[in-house]
Amino acid sequence: MKDTAQLVNELTLLEKAALLSGANTWETRAIERIDLPAIWLADGPHGVRKQVGSADHLGINGSEPATCFPTAATIAGSWDDDLAERVGAALGAEASSQGVGVLLGPGLNIKRSPLGGRNFEYFSEDPELSGRLAAAYVRGIQSAGVAATPKHFAVNSQELRRMVSDSVVDERTLREIYLTAFEIVVRESAPWAIMSSYNLINGTYAHENTHLLQQVLREEWGFHGAVVSDWGGGNDAVTAVSAGGTLEMPSPGFDSARAIVAAVESGELPMADLDARVSEVIDLVRTVSPRTAATVDLDAHHALARRAAAESAVLLRNEGGILPLGEGTTVALVGDFATTPRFQGAGSSLVNATRVSTLVEAMGASSTVTLAGTAQGFRRDGGSDPTLIAEAVALASRADVVVLALGLPEIAESEGLDRSTLALPADQVELLASIHSANPRTVVVLSAGGAVETPWSAHAAALVHGYLGGQAGAEAIVDVLTGVVEPGGRLAETLPISLADTPTAGSFPSRARTAEYREGPFVGYRHYESAAVDVAYPFGYGLGYTTFAYRDLAVDENGAQATVTNTGLRAGSDVVQLYIGRLGESGVLRPVRELKGYTKVWLEPGESRRVSLAFTDRTFRFFDVGSDSWQVEAGEYEIAVGANSQDLPLRATITRAGVSLPLLDERLATVSTGGADDAAFAVMLKRAIPDSEWGSGPLEVNDPMDRMSGARGALGRMAFRILDSRRRKAEAAGTPDLNILFLLNGPFRVISKMSGGLATSRLTAAVLTLVNGQSVRGLGRIIGAFFRGRREEKAAKRAFDAAAQRKSA
After folding, report:
1. What is the mean pLDDT of the chain?
2. Taking 60 as the threshold, does the pLDDT of residue 680 lie above it?
3. CA 659, 662, 664, 665: dihedral to nearest 10 degrees?
4. pLDDT beyond 70 at 533
5. Contact yes or no for 57/456 (Cβ under 8 A)
6. Which of 262, 288, 314 is the last residue before a domain boundary?
7. Last residue of a domain, one of 685, 718, 737
8. Which of 428, 537, 556, 787 could pair with 495 as two cysteines, CB 3.0-4.6 Å apart?
9. Residue 529 included in any domain
10. What percent of the chain is modeled with pLDDT above 90?
């Protein structure tokens, strides 16, 4: 077999350029004369979404049936690397069985704000936990011969204007918070591909960011795979090739290929850069294409999904030990989610599940409890309905226990939009109060992809956060409620008391041109612990049906050891968590404590076990911007071990050698409590704060289309009104219109980048001429650009096809 370098040398310039963009929405280009097949890429962070009919990238059109596993936000609650790897292996096997070579996931962006609309696809607010779980997913997926594609690299924190937002972040925060999880994945699981994010990072798009893709990803971490753009995330194809962006998806036709060819011919783009990217594509194709399709046991995968959802559910409250429900308990099942479950998020991760269980079916099948009846209780659209409440109250008064299924409706969290509140819909809170008055033995089960405020929790004798549990989530919840499965979940994100307490309150999501990360490294529990802000439920928190005690902490140069004992009457699991914090004066702006390790342990009643939590090269390090390297600050550190970020009964100190630093710049003193002011943020950035305002001149190719609301041209303003009215109509109906959200949030360049060759960058420029007020000239340019683009597209395709025919000649 010829090696990759030989194959690259056999390709024409056009063939090389064409290999760096898709053939259509989901496939790479094939070049038969060198025996290079096309491969199929498909969404799949928690289930394969292969579309064989009308294709789109937003999960709107149908796809092949596949197991819908719990979302990443759910699995994160397990704190179980082995479980994550088993789920990954199942995802890889299903992808293989459907002929998918590249699975687009897992998602591991840090939850900068609990308002992030796509948080259900991400693991945690912490990079150590996110990185380890994502690495486990990657190992599992690739064990099936399918490439995993960890995403979105990097600093992708908001959905609003996600394709044009510039994440302005200091280098320390970038490295320690937003890149560390990806570093763990690359170093510990060697993914064959990685997906770049839509946004800019400090002024440069991620897919053409040399610092990100070359200096950090390839040179420092040793990544050798392909960097795939998020769908429509390509901006400048030539710059991307130079910077390390490998494959632009979906197909822009041959528009990008022509630009690359022209750049090589003019000397702007070195052939060596082009050949490097082409080699990455060929290596990816050859790695995944010769594999034999896996055989899948869908029943076994449903059982795995059920077990994973149960072990990830987080028991937050259990007053009087109401759970697990006892034998013969009569249960009133209330809530719209009981019969119409919300088990996954909306958007590109939407899975066509092989089956979907409901709470009413699962409860009815239980041999432990007796179902007294069901009641809808509330409307999905949030409107108060006294009749539904009255019916639910009447049912509740006749049962031993009420299981009340509450949560966030579909419109509250979705790809393409961010949340506006952490509150449950008011009608659900009203229902809970009424139910509690009728029957205080009320168990609340939450269906939501992230954090919610819980001021109403006193009305719940027990509270289980089930997150989005996948197709078997309802069965899993019944397993937990009846004690068939021990609730082993622990929060992978803090539940704040109120939105106002969050570190980005009032500034997230940013509607400006930039999103300024003024909170620095104080994300999630790092903020709450450092600023002494009370929370509803701390990071790492979760109850079980038994109790645990910790003793005998020992610390040496290699790590910490502690003894954990199950002090209860039932077998159960606990997550032993290791945190470190610098003691005394520090020259580094740092949180009070940070998670640096964890292990999950299962113990029988009365059983004790000695557990070890090893120090790694990440445990004590900080990123020193001055030397552009990782360093350890000399001094004393507190080692704390316990059950969550606030329950750390075992503590010890250790002295580490390292660099000595001057005292912290006094201008940074308040960053940990309230975010950086202008002076402090400039110190953190080590440069002037960039302008955050949108320009007042004509709209440009990378302006978001929602800015047509103030376009100079009447046709542009009319187009905005039409799109916006469709957006508002969809919101009123309770289901987000993802196509409209994508267009409004997206830049004008997507007109050509996602057209499959029907439009070119020249046509996009013509559209902007019209939008900016030159209607007649713009219309003429649009017509001319369209027909010229069709001629160029056909010519490029003929040349590409002709090269393939030379083999037989």
Report:
1. 95
2. yes
3. -140
4. yes
5. no
6. 288
7. 685
8. 537
9. no
10. 90
pLDDT at 77 over 70: yes
Query: pLDDT by residue (tens digit) across 707-728?
Result: 999 999 999 999 999 999 998 9
- Indicate if 150 and 262 belong to the same structural domain: yes
The one-character DSSP state at 70 is: P
pLDDT of 560 strictly over 90: yes
* Contact indicator for 753, 234 with CB cutoff of 8 Å: yes
Res 185: pLDDT: 98
- Check: CB of residue 401 under 8 Å from CB of residue 329: yes
Whole-number percent of the chain with pLDDT over 70:
98
Mean pLDDT of 114-119: 96
pLDDT given at position 716: 92
> In this model, does residue 54 exceed pLDDT 70?
no
Two structure tokens written together for 2: 């010829």
**Do 70 and 150 fall within a single domain?**
yes
345 in a structural domain = yes
Query: Which residue would you say has higher pLDDT here, 300 or 346?
Result: 300
Cite the active site residues. Answer: 230
Q: How far is CA 240 from the centre of its chain?
A: 23
Interior angle at CA 608, CA 604 and CA 610, nearest 5: 130
659 and 553 within one domain = yes
Instruction: Give the chain's radius of gyration (CA, Å).
Output: 27
**209/224 Cα distance (integer angstroms):** 17
CATH number for the domain that contains residue 492: 3.40.50.1700
Percent composition of the chain: helix, strand, coil (DSSP 3-state, to 5): 35, 20, 45
Which pLDDT band, with edges at 50, 70 and 90, does 58 fall under?
low
Run of H or E including 753? helix 750-753
What range defines the domain where residue 49 resides?
4-288
For residue 128, name the pLDDT band (cuts at 50, 70, 90): very high
For residue 640, being part of any structural domain is answered with: yes
Q: How far apart are CA 793 and CA 795, in angstroms?
A: 5
3-state secondary structure of 691: coil
The answer to whether 619 touches 642, Cβ cutoff 8 Å, is no
The first and second tokens of residue 361, run together, are 């079916």
* Both tokens assigned to 268: 């702007």
Q: Strand 650-656 and strand 635-642: pairing?
A: antiparallel
> What are 147's two structure tokens?
């490439």
Instruction: List pLDDT tens digits, range 399-416.
Output: 999 999 999 998 899 898
**CATH code for the domain of 602:** 2.60.40.10
Give residue 807's pLDDT band: very low, low, confident or very high (50, 70, 90).
low
Residue 357 in contact with residue 472, Cβ under 8 Å? yes
C-alpha closest to that of 791 among 760, 766, 764: 760
| Same domain (yes/no): 246, 306 | no
pLDDT at 808 over 50: no
**């597209």: which residue's tokens?**
793
What DSSP assignment string belongs to 535-575?
A: EEE-TT--B-SS-EEEEEEEEETTEEEEEEEE-SSS-EEEE
Give the C-alpha separation, 561 to 614, whole Å.
8
- The angle formed by the CA atoms of residues 395, 396 and 398, to the nearest 5 degrees, is 70
Higher pLDDT, 757 or 374: 374
Whether residues 456 and 585 share a domain: the answer is no
Question: For the chain, what's the residue count?
Answer: 809
Q: What's the DSSP call for residue 697?
A: S
Residue 223 vs residues 183, 402, 550: alpha-carbon distances, Å: 10, 52, 40
Report the alpha-carbon distance of residue 495 to residue 713 in Å, rounded.
46
Same domain, 565 and 669: yes
Distance CA 195, CA 245 (A): 9
Q: Exposed, middle or buried: residue 691 (CB in 10 Å: 0-12, 13-18, 19+)? A: exposed
Confidence (pLDDT) at 57 = 65
For residue 284, the number of C-alpha atoms closer than 13 Å in the C-beta half-sphere is 36
Quote the tokens at residue 619. 């445990």
Question: E strand or H helix at 428, and its extent?
Answer: helix 426-438
Q: What is the pLDDT of residue 59?
A: 63
- Same-domain check for residues 603 and 509: no
- State the total domains in the chain: 4
How much is the average pLDDT of 506-524? 96
Asked if residue 698 belongs to a domain, the reply is no
